[in-house]
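User: Fold this one for me? It's Peptide methionine sulfoxide reductase MsrB.
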Amino acid sequence: MVEKLTLSDAEWRKRLTPEEYDVLRQHGTEYPGTGCFLGTKDPGTYVCAGCRNPLFKAGVKFESGTGWPSFTQTIGPDAVAEIQDRSHGMVRTEVRCARCDGHLGHVFPDGPPPTGLRYCMNSVAMKHVPEGQPIELVKK
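Assistant: Here's what I get for Peptide methionine sulfoxide reductase MsrB.
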């Protein structure tokens, strides 16, 4: 089980860029095709931009053609929380960081094998840690 990181709204505003705050704390979405991780293939780990919780290994990233970086599976069962999202007149599954509750994107059941899932994430909600570098969680 992941230890939760809970901060005040003022503290999140101090720690995050305006773009990160909009997506992670206000459930915003970056425009399709604009994210910095859309075409990257560098080995390593994608972590939450808010708290550095490990989310996805680079090896499960794939080109979905949707305009957002997509992954077939999370790094482990405690990496993210999945919540039903009924906004915008549709039913989707929102993906949040299990540690800080930051909005990351959505997961859809139209991905490739072996999982059939497409974790469609906002680049601004993540950081890339190159293979072999330590991952340091953000502390209070």
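One thing worth pointing out: The mean pLDDT is 94.
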